[in-house]
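SAMPLE LOG
Freezer: B-3
Tube label: C17
Construct: single chain, 368 aa
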Amino acid sequence: MVNTPFIPGLELCKMFFHDLVEPILEETFPNLRYAAAIVGSGSEVLGFDTEMSSDHHWGPRVMLFLDENDLSRDAVTIHKIIANRLPYTYRGYSTAFTPPDRNDNGTQLLSVIDSGPVNHRVETLSLRGYCLEYLGIDPNVELIPIDWLTIPGQKLRAMTGGAVYRDDIGELMKVREILSEYPNDVWLYMLAAGWTRISQEEPFMGRTGIVDDKLGSRIIASRLVHDLMNLCFLMERQYPPYSKWFGTAFEKLECSNPLVPIFQAVFDAADWREREKQLASAFKLVAEMHNAVNITRPIPEDVTNFHNRPIMVIHSEIFANAIKEQIRDLEVKRISHITDIGAVEQFSASTDVLTDTRICKKLRILYL
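STRUCTURE (predicted):
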């Protein structure tokens, strides 16, 4: 596999399914109704995989979503038939994987074999079971605002990204459509929370600079840039991915062309006054984006002094308060009166929090 030309994962898996897996299922289970897809975790799901990605948990694979009755009856047989009928390689890549590594989050590697059944990654799942485990929701039950706020955006992006190669019943496509964007009032609440986060720290970059805390000034500027980027994802109604691909995904937003050079200038600034000047430009552009979305009355887009101090800010609380006035859903309005923390990824960057469904479900108490 060392000299195998790299094929992006979604393309490789699509060909693998249609060329090998689908024909086997049509021959052995001609009446089986199922969905075939690649969703969930994996850089290839986001479309950001490179040759380096192929060194772990990557390769020709597919997820098969079956009716729960069919799953309990046929899953073991399907696994065995595919294990015995798959070729050992496909387009230069092994179809066999190592067993999940218990010491490394279940990671599986491509494994070269030349005899015996293939330890493949053609997974058989139920859509309900997968959604309960991965997202913490039952796809058959209507989502409420707290559900939306405790599903990390990176998981929503992964569930609505990837690719669906077949869906006989349409249930997977239906779930993906439901999850494709936040309900409007949940979205408004999250926008308000984003502006609130900025308002809580925007004067500190200059304040640390005044006392010659160069490191502190840079750290706060970095946090403000990250919060502005999150706002941009929200305003363009795109879910942000996890940190490894956050910048890559941001550069694909419509607003990235003018903002990326400014953010780079913030990081490259030699002193806090230059950093403030660049942040002011970024604030102005994001404020213009807000006004263009037309969800509130027009709000001034230029930075001004923070009270009587020589520090320039956009006064983000004005944006936050104006947005909250537009919330009509009574449950979202109730939550907005209790807390301004927003959704889980807005107040936590912990990998454990953003990947563990059990922890996210416990966070529901924050909105009660």
